[in-house]
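Margin note from the TA: students keep mixing up input and output lines. Inputs are the sequences; the output is the structure of the whole complex. Example:
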Amino acid sequence: MLVVENLYAGYGASKVLTGASLEVAQGRIVALIGANGAGKTTTMRAISGMLKPDKGRVLLDGKPVQGQDASRIARLGLAHAPEGRKVFGPLSTEDNLLLGAYSRLPLFFGFRARSIHDLERVYDLFPLLRERRLQAAGTLSGGEQQMLAIGRALMANPKVMLLDEPSMGLAPVIVQEVFNTIRRLKADGITLLLVEQFAKSALEVSDYAYVMERGRIVAEGAPAELLKDKRVLAAYLG
Amino acid sequence: MDFIIIAQMVVSGALMGLVYALIAYGFQLTFSTSKSINFGQGELVMLSAFFSLTLLDWGAPFWLMVPGGLLFGVVLGLAVERAGLRLALEQKSEGWILLTIIIGLLGFSAAENIWGRDDRPFPTPISSDAMQFFGVSITPLEISVAIGVFSLMGLIELFKRKTLLGKAFEAVSADRDAAELMGISATRTVMLSYGLSGLVAAMAGILVSPITTVGPTMASALILKAFSVAVVAGLDSGFGVVVVGIFLGALESLTSFYLGSGWREAPGLILLILALAVRPNGVFGKATIRKV
C-alpha cells in the first residue's frame, strides 16, 4: 500500500535521510524504531509531503506521490498524525475532527450530516472526545489531544496512516491507553506506519518493523526476530 | 447642551470609526492565514471606489454598481496575492512588504492617469437629510455605513464559523502545516483571504465615498487609522477592531472639535505608540492557548 524507495531528504545542508527504503502492506502495522535523530520523523515528513524529498520514490497505492504538496498527498488517502499532535487549538474538538474529513466533505452545507457516521465511530473509540466535543482543542490535556490527533486522522478514512510518536510527553497510564487504541485499530484492519520511542511497546503491536540508524534502514524483520537480535536489543531496547 | 454636542461628536466619529474597523478587519483576514498584510490596501479602497464611480458614469443603477464594485475589489485582492505575495511567501521571504507597497504605488499612479487628480463627488440615492435622535442628528447615509460594515463583517464571520471551508480557513490560521495534512491547500486559503480582504476594501470604498469624495488620496489617511486600529485591537480579534475603531473615531472627532482639526490625526498615532509599548499583541489579542 505504501512503498518508500531509496529516499533522500534533509533540511538545507543537513542531510537526514540517506537512502531509506521501507514498505507497509495493506492491513499491516509497521513500526519504525531507532535512536533520536536517526531520521524517523523526517521519514514521515518526507512521505506525507511536509518535506520535499531530494531523491527517491514514495508510492501510495502504486502511484508515485513524492514531491507533491502535502494537501494533495492527503487527498490521495494518506493521513499523517504528526509529532507534537498539532491539533487546531482555537477550534473545537468536533471541528478538528470534521476537518480531518475535509477532502471528502462538501465545503459549504451538509458536511455535518455527511460525517455523522464517522464522527460516531471516533467518539465510540474515544468516549472522552465526545464529552469534550465543544471544547477548544487547545484546552484539552496532552492525552486527549493525542486521541484527537488520531481521531482526526481516522476521519479521513485513509488508505495509510502515519502515526508519529503518539506517546510523547504522556503519562505512563495514558501511553498504555494509546497502545490499546492501536490494538483496536489493528483489529479493524488499519494500515499504519508507527514511529515510537517506546520501541518495545511498538514492536508488541506491530506486524513488521524497521530499525533506522543515521538516515537509513539497518535492520528489519518480524518483531519476534528483532527482539532476538542482540544488536537491536542492545541499541534500542535496553 | 454641551452634552448633546459631545454626543453628536461621539456618534459621527464612531460611524467613521466603523470604516477604520472594516479596513482593519481586512488586514486581519490576510494576517491570520499568511502572517502578511497588503500595505497597498488603501489603494484597493480607492481604486474600487473609482471603479464603482465609473460604473455609475456608464449608467449602471446604484444597486448593480455595488456588487460590481465589490467584485472588482475581490479581483484586485487576488491580483495582489498573485503578484506580491505568493512568490515571497513560498520562499519564506519578507519581500512581500516592498512588493505590496510598490503595487500600491502603481495603483495610485494608474488612478491619477485614468481618473485624474481631482476629488469627485460620489452620487448616492441614500438621503443625507439629518434625522433627530434625542437631539443628536444622524443621516440615513451614515446609518448605511453602519449597516454595510456590520453586515459584511457578520457574513464573513458566519462563513468562517458555519461552513467547512471557513473552518479550513481557521485551521490554516491556527496551524498551516497541520491544515495541509488534512488536505487543505494553504496556498488556496491565502488566496481566499486576499480575495476577502479585497472585498472588504471595496466595501469600505463604496460606503465612505458618498460621505467624503473619490480621489487618488482619499484612502491615505483612512489606511493609517485602520492600521492603528488593527494593531491596537490585535491582529486576531474581529470584535476588537469594531470596539477600537468606534473608540478611535469618537476620540478623533472630539479632538478636532476641542483642539482644532489639525490635531485630528494625533489620537490614532498616540494610541498606536501606546499599544506597541504596553500591549504589543493588542488590547484584544489572544495569548495563544497551547499545551505541550
